[in-house]
């Protein structure tokens, strides 16, 4: 496969495939983007707006993507989603868009009683049909330039919180756990219905796939998560969240887990015990100490997982010196191609 914005894509593909196959690497994966001279500062069109014509959004995307060089293992791609809770719309949720700071779309809770709200894929809904329409439109213009990626499919407890409300779901976990488990089973069934359709629409068999961190795989890859886990303890996480995460991971060849913040970090050990997870992506908060952030990364490595993190050249070199051969992915935005090439040559 050729990508106009990534002339050396086949070389990057081989490195990514070797990364997923084996924990022993000759150098870390480097996702390096460099702004092209004369760039105009076009903004990435996120989220995609289903209530608007996809045409101008596609042109904006192509203009944004063309403003960068994608070096080493950086792959130009775009996560086509209507908002972080896109998956909830497949179950019947409506979206609203908050104007600040990024016009982000969120799902409106609609479940008042689990007995009165059957969880099923709404194939005739505006959002499901629009998702497939947008995939066709974006691929028609973007194939050959960049990869169009699936929306983030936040399922499990996250999607129940989206359609029920976080506070109400917490109460249900205590007072109506059987109903929550039944709802989770239904979500898992819907997830299994969605994946084959998206795989065909996005051409995963022929083109491979990338996740929203631009991590490429010749097969199927995704980032799974349970942000709701920051509100529950270890026991409840193992009982309600882990079975869903294990089920989600089974649909992919390469899996990254999005661990969101220090309040979720106490689930790291349970997550690293999951054989279906390959890489941990940790998201620290501004108030977090550097020591705690580093302890999470070191903990994931000690428990046998790879990590992806933002870094500068010095941090990337130091971590590789401390963990040679391990699954390390560094995302780096650099000011010049020369600076990037110096880093690549240093490993």
Topology:
Blueprint: H1 9-21, E1 29-35, H2 54-65, E2 68-72, E3 77-79, H3 86-90, E4 94-97, E5 105-108, H4 126-142, E6 147-149, H5 156-164, H6 166-175, H7 177-202, H8 204-207, E7 209-210, E8 216-217, E9 221-225, H9 234-249, E10 254-260, H10 268-272, E11 279-283, H11 290-302, E12 306-310, H12 313-322, E13 328-333, H13 337-345
Parallel strand pairs: 1-13, 3-6, 9-10, 10-11, 11-12, 12-13
Antiparallel strand pairs: 1-2, 4-5, 7-8
Folded structure, characterized:
- The strands form 4 sheets. The chain has a 7-stranded mixed beta sheet.
- With 347 residues, the chain is of the alpha/beta class.
- The protein has a single domain, classed as TIM Barrel (Alpha-Beta Barrel), CATH 3.20.20.210.
- Helix 6 crosses helix 7.
- 43% of the residues are buried.
- The mean pLDDT is 96.
- Helix 11 links the parallel strand 11 and strand 12 (306-310).
- Helices cover 43% and strands 17% of the residues.
- The chain has helices spanning 9-21, 54-65, 86-90, 126-142, 156-164, 166-175, 177-202, 204-207, 234-249, 268-272, 290-302, 313-322, 337-345, and strands at 29-35, 68-72, 77-79, 94-97, 105-108, 147-149, 209-210, 216-217, 221-225, 254-260, 279-283, 306-310, 328-333.
């Amino acid at each position: 496969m050729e990508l106009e914005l990534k002339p050396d894509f086949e070389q990057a593909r081989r490195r990514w495939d070797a990364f997923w196959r084996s924990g022993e690497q000759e150098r870390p994966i480097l996702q390096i983007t460099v702004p092209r001279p004369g760039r105009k500062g076009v903004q990435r069109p996120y989220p995609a707006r289903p209530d608007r014509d996809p045409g101008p959004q596609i042109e904006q995307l192509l203009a944004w993507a063309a403003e960068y060089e994608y070096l080493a293992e950086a792959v130009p791609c775009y996560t086509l989603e209507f908002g972080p809770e896109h998956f909830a719309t497949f179950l019947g949720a409506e979206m609203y868009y908050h104007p600040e700071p990024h016009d982000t779309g969120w799902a409106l809770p609609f479940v008042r009683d689990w007995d009165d709200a059957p969880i099923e894929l709404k194939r005739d809904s505006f959002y499901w049909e629009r998702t497939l329409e947008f995939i066709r439109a974006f691929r028609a213009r973007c194939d050959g330039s960049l990869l169009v990626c699936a929306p983030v499919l936040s399922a499990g407890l996250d999607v129940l919180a989206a359609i029920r409300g976080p506070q109400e779901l917490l109460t249900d976990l205590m007072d109506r756990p059987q109903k929550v488990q039944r709802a989770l089973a239904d979500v898992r069934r819907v997830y299994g219905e969605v994946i084959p359709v998206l795989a065909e629409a996005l051409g995963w068999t022929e083109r491979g796939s990338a996740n929203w961190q631009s991590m490429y795989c010749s097969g199927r890859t995704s980032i799974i998560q349970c942000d709701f886990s920051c509100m529950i303890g270890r026991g409840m996480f193992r009982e309600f969240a882990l079975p869903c995460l294990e089920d989600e991971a089974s649909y992919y060849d390469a899996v990254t887990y999005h661990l969101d913040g220090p309040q979720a970090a106490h689930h790291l050990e349970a997550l690293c015990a999951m054989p279906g997870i390959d890489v941990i992506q940790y998201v620290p908060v501004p108030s977090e100490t550097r020591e705690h952030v580093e302890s999470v990364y070191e903990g994931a490595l000690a428990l046998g997982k790879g990590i992806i993190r933002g870094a500068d050249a010095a941090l990337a070199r130091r971590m590789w010196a401390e963990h040679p051969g391990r699954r390390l992915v560094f995302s780096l935005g650099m000011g010049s191609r020369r600076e990037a090439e110096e880093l690549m040559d240093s490993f």
